[in-house]
UniProtKB/TrEMBL annotation:
Pfam families: ABC_tran. It comes from Paracoccus sulfuroxidans. The keyword Transferase does not apply. Keywords: ATP-binding, Nucleotide-binding, Transport. The lineage of its organism: Bacteria, Pseudomonadati, Pseudomonadota, Alphaproteobacteria, Rhodobacterales. GO terms for molecular function: ATP binding; ATP hydrolysis activity. SUPFAM superfamilies: P-loop containing nucleoside triphosphate hydrolases. Residues 5-234 form the ABC transporter domain. The keyword Cytoplasm does not apply. This is ABC-2 type transport system ATP-binding protein.
C-alpha cells in the first residue's frame, strides 16, 4: 500500500531553545487509521500543525500525496482536513454557512447535496440554521469535523476530537470515522481516551519529549509489549509469601487471599506449569484463577516511564 503521508527527519526548535520535535520520521499509508499517543507537551500537536502548514519546521520535509508542504503547499493543503483541539467558530454564523464557507476557501463550487449528506452523517442537519453560539460543546465539535470534511480531504487529522463529548456522541463520531476509512480517507488522531485508540487504530505511534518512540501495528504492539497476568485466589489467607515463590515472581495481594504472577504469553515457556507444581508441593490450595491481558494504557505508561 502506498504512503500518502511521508515525514522525513522533521524537527522544530523555537528561539527560546525549546525542542518541540526532534528528527521525527514516519510514513502513513492510504486508508489506514493511525493513533498518535503521548503526554501533554510531547509534540503531537506540533507535528500535526507542521503537516497542516500552521507551523514552519526547523528542518526536515513533509509530503502529502507526493506534494511537498512547503514548495507545493497549495496542492498539499487541499488533501488535508484538520479538526483542532480548540473550538474556534464564528458565534453568529449558521452551521450550514460555516461548512459552505470553508468549502469555498478551497476554491470548490457549491455542492448542496454533499453538504446535506455531511451534516446528516454528523447529526447536524436539524441544527443547520442554528447559530454556532447556540450549540453545546459536543455539537460545536461536530461542526469542526463537518468543516474539516467540507472539501473531501484525503487525509484527516483529528486532534483530541472527542474531548468534552458525551459517550453517545463519541460513538456516533467513531461510526463516521469508520465510514470515512471505508471510503479511503486516511485518518490520524490524537486522543487521551486510550480505549479509543485500541479499538480504532490500525497502527499506534508513541511520542514523548519530541521524539517518536515507536510506530507499530496495533496487533504487533499488543503482542510484543503486552503481558498477561495470572491471579490465583486462595482458600486460606497467607500471611507471607515463601521465599521460593517470591523468587519465581509471585506477588502476594495485600489481603493475603490471592497471588499475582505476570508473564510473557509469547515466551517459549511461561513457567505456569512449574509454578502450579511448586504450589501443590507446598500445600498451597488454589480456589480459582483468572488471566488478563495488558491494555494499551499499560503499554503506553510503561513506554513513557522508560523514556522519562
Amino acid at each position: 500500500m502506498a504512503a500518502i503521508l511521508e515525514v522525513d527527519h522533521l524537527s522544530k526548535r523555537y528561539g527560546s531553545g525549546t525542542s518541540a520535535l526532534n528528527d521525527v520520521s514516519l510514513d502513513i499509508n492510504e486508508g489506514e487509521i493511525v493513533a498518535l499517543l503521548g503526554p501533554n507537551g510531547a509534540g503531537k500537536t506540533t507535528l500535526i500543525s507542521i503537516i497542516c502548514g500552521l507551523v514552519v519546521p526547523t528542518s526536515g520535509t513533509v509530503r502529502v500525496g507526493g506534494h511537498d508542504i512547503r514548495t507545493d503547499w497549495r496542492a498539499a493543503r487541499k488533501m488535508i482536513g484538520l479538526v483542532p483541539q480548540e473550538i474556534a467558530l464564528e458565534p453568529f454564523e449558521k452551521v450550514i454557512d460555516c461548512v459552505r464557507y470553508t468549502r469555498g476557501l478551497y476554491g470548490l463550487p457549491p455542492d448542496e447535496a454533499y453538504v446535506e449528506q455531511l451534516l446528516r452523517s454528523l447529526a447536524l442537519w436539524d441544527k443547520r440554521e442554528a447559530r454556532t453560539r447556540e450549540l453545546s460543546g459536543g455539537m460545536k465539535r461536530r461542526v469542526l469535523i463537518a468543516k474539516a470534511l467540507s472539501h473531501r480531504p484525503k487525509v484527516l487529522f483529528l486532534d483530541e476530537p472527542t474531548a468534552g463529548v458525551d459517550v453517545t456522541l463519541r460513538r456516533e463520531m467513531w461510526t463516521v470515522v469508520r465510514e470515512l476509512r471505508a471510503q479511503g480517507v486516511t485518518i490520524i488522531l490524537t486522543t487521551h481516551y486510550l480505549e479509543e485508540a485500541e479499538d480504532m487504530a490500525d497502527r499506534i505511534g508513541v511520542i514523548n519529549h519530541g521524539q517518536l518512540l515507536l510506530m507499530r501495528p496495533k496487533s504487533e504492539l499488543m503482542g510484543e509489549f503486552g503481558k498477561k497476568r495470572l491471579v490465583l485466589d486462595l482458600y486460606e489467607p497467607m500471611a507471607t509469601l515463601p521465599a521460593e515463590l517470591a523468587e519465581r515472581g509471585l506477588v502476594l495481594a495485600p489481603d493475603g487471599m490471592s497471588m499475582i504472577y505476570d508473564y510473557d504469553s509469547h515466551a517459549d515457556r511461561t513457567g505456569i506449569t512449574r509454578l502450579m507444581a511448586e504450589l501443590a508441593d507446598k500445600g498451597v490450595a488454589v480456589r480459582d484463577f483468572a488471566t488478563s491481558q495488558s491494555s494499551l494504557e499499560d503499554i503506553f505508561m510503561s513506554l513513557v516511564e522508560e523514556d522519562a
